[in-house]
Amino acid sequence: MSVLQLDAVTRIYGAGASEVRALDDVTLTVDEGDFVAIMGPSGSGKSTLLAIAGGLDQGWTGSVTVAGHPLQGLKRDALARLRRRHVGYVFQDYNLVPTLNVIENVALPLELDRTDPSWARQSARAALKRLGIADLAGRRLDQISGGQRQRVAIARAIVGDRKLILADEPTGALDSATGDDVMQRLRLLADDGVAVVLVTHEARHAGWADRIVFLRDGRVVDSTRVANDPAVLLAGA
Amino acid sequence: MSIKYGLLAILDESPAYGYQLKTEFERRTASAWPLNIGQVYTTLDRLSRDGLVTPLDPTDDTRTYAITPAGRAELKTWFTTPIEQTTPPRNDLAIKLALAASTHADLTAIIQAQRTATMRTLQHYTLAKRQADASDTAWLMVVELMIFTAEAEIRWLDHCEGLASRPTPTRSDAPAAVTAPAQSKDKAVR
Fold it and tell me: Transcription regulator PadR N-terminal domain: from which residue to which, for each copy (chain B) (predicted)?
């Protein structure tokens, strides 16, 4: 089932001589369990695509559907509600609230959505367990490492059983081994049915995706897809 | 040559015959560099000639070899001496891009096609890494080499694309140091 669908999406900034086509007629379908990496040079439209997919940018034309809900025409409040229920963000700098501890950060989107607090805590604990960091629940953020913070951010992204993760350079602040660990966590979530859209300039991390979409000047110029097939051998490479 | 030292390293643990050495070498290097059995026997003959290995029983048809003290010393020297790669290996992709950049070929399209192909290869290596036994360090090191090599190629392609898309410098953009020698040469001619 499609979790994210972009059809002929175009986003133009400015007008006349200063017009910039940040996205130009982009069509993309992301199903449950898909792990899609978006690559391209600076200014190719990667972050714009992510902002539109998450309902953070509204000045586009075309059609965008998230979890079956068309975004077109939705008012700000309705968009925010849709985001809280269906979309989780993961950023390079984690975007966690420093005054809250680990479990409070993870439970926050549910509490903002006025979920019963005990249920929010229970869901947060389940999300932390999925990320293998249930033991960090009571820690302050300054007591955990960068890699652990990113795992907390991913737990926050999936809390409440959200099915779409939008990750913008989530490994940018991490060394390659810790970055690999974060990618492995995203991969496991995708294997478990979560749709992941990753923006990255690091090929090493894009390699974890099933599909890689290359953007240039706002257009999709190429894409790769590998079957999740165990019969892949290095022999003869 | 790594095959020679690879065989010595395996023999340093216990005596072995040709086919055992072939399968053990491939197992330890994640089958990334398969050997043919002829290469193994030729190398063993050379090692034996140089006194680095010796057949345990020359009358035995299976020809089991053991490492000699000289072989152990040679192996130790190899492990403790850094490998210097002084001559860059011939690189068909670099040659292709260099020729494309100096002709009317569509360099951007060539770079994109290569990047997609290399990215697909990198996805396969990552899949192989995911399916690897986490305790198999030898295999993981080899597959990581493949991943880092593919990643480096993609980064280089990104860089080449940036170089190719630069506006061509005009004469007025050229640094003064480039024109200065031409002027002095001009004067010298006069």
Answer: 7-76
